[in-house]
């Protein structure tokens, strides 16, 4: 396989503002979104050990799952193209060739649409067996890269971070795979806050707890459920205005599904004096900007990165 990016080279971007200084809060953004133009953000980390395992098992094809705008589908198609795998995307819902899927196809991914109803069975053993048979024994990666090897890869997100420099870590949460990896690798003194991008996300607490290895019981982590903005892929005017303002002020594009909500939540907690003065926060930019192409024209400048 081709070498993976050097994760220790990921850049931080400190946010400098009079307001943050007056609160005596420092925030730095870890720009995973700039890791690779197509294999964006946390998705590279989740794929890394899965692709290595697929190679070990001598599989030539990767099969995975996602929606028509999925960052995971986009990243998997690009990573498989780069590493010489064929790829199959089991896509939820109606046949709709979004820019995400057009690009995935151009990278060699074969999209296979199934109904939302059928998609609900994506983790069922019987359904998986059927797919393995139908698609000639591919290596299966669950939706969102959510498995033990995905977590293993996410433990490398902080490879270039000197954790002593930070008191808090903030990260967006979908499946919780990324957060689990971060909790595993975090120093015991650091406080980790996950911001679920979906509504009714309480189940994630037990899921993440179950994903952690035993020696993490003393780690300080929590999920803040207050910033889902109506649910997965939903947004409110307050959120979209925030994303525009954030770009104007710091020149960092955020996606409206994950990182916009995480950053809004972080800033709002600063506003409400949640963080003690002197806090040094590391906000993880998990990427996902390609998904902004689903937004109206005025937002599209945010989908390219910078
Ligand atoms: C997929 C994704 C997440 C969610 O990661 P999980 O490991 O599923 O919690 C967060 N941010 C962005 C930008 C993503 O694309």
Would you kindly provide a written description of the structure presented here, covering whatever features stand out?
The chain has 306 residues and is α/β, with parallel strands linked by helices. The chain is 35% helix and 17% strand. The protein is built from 11 helices and 10 strands. The strands form 2 sheets. It has a 6-stranded mixed β-sheet. α9 (203-211) links the parallel β8 and β9 (220-223). α2 (42-56) packs across α3 (71-83), α2 packs across α7 and α7 crosses α8 (177-185). The model has no long low-confidence stretch (mean pLDDT 95). The structure holds pyridoxal-5'-phosphate. Pyridoxal-5'-phosphate is lined by residues 41-42, 71-72, 144, 172-179, 255, 258-259, 286-288.
